[in-house]
Fold:
Amino acid sequence: MDITVIVCTHNRGESLSQTLDSLAASSLPSSCSWEVLVVDNDSSDCTRDVANAFCARSAGRFRYVFERHPGLSTARNSGVRAALGEILAFTDDDVTVDPAWLRNLTARLKEDKQWAGAGGRTLPTQPFSPPEWLSQEQPVQWGGVLGGLFDLGDKAGSLSIAPYGTNMAFRKEMFEKYGEFRSDLGRGPGNLMSCEDTEFGQRLLEAGEHLHYEPSALVYHPILASRVQKAYFLDWWFNYGRSKAREKYGTVGRAERIRMYLETPAIVGARLFVRTLRWMRCLNRAQRFSFKCRVWATMGQVLEIYRR
Structure:
């Protein structure tokens, strides 16, 4: 099998159906063998019926896996283990993919062994005008909050930052070489934790692997009104800070962890003071809220360090 598309889902049967419809319309060469693997993360709605309907409609193209243990990282790792493809592509259960998405996202990986992975371009489904309190200077910073929007322009090339799980692909051997997604990161019941996708990509970059940016690999993600709210942004950034603390301190040895825990309060405390000062002094509304988000992220980091 050449390619496996992994779609993890939890209680989104209706949007999942639209996503699978768009994947079914994918345009790939007849010589390319590919499958779509739906990983049901303990859903209680119609998800199983939706997935089984596609499995029955296109036998051999769609497969269904049930993962009882909650958590996006756990579901993604189940998908990695069950996948038959040499290249593993990932997307979400509430998106629409362009018919050429899968072909374009994986083309360089199939042609050139230097590429360990790739990330595509994720755009809003509908025209989106950011509210006046949201800074437009660095849209990559708020793309994750809104569902994994990722747009580095029209030019293909090497990535220096990791792509989001909404639109990414890796050689399966990368998981065998560098391990799976970290199960202590990622969404779970009752929390907005994140970074399991970007942590894996960053792990590869730091190991010297090369990731490709392919702007023609298009995914369209809806922007929910419930996410374009200050309260949601602050909650997301607070949990982002928690995720970054886990990411940084979750894999070191005991002695190193103790040393860093002794040093970190002063460092983070100083960072919190500086960011709070910039937030309180800033007069520009959008920049002021951006600074406030950074303060919330730092508070999340502090809380997670002390929790651990």
Observations:
- Strands lie at 3-9, 34-40, 62-66, 87-91, 96-97, 115-124, 157-158, 167-171, 210-221.
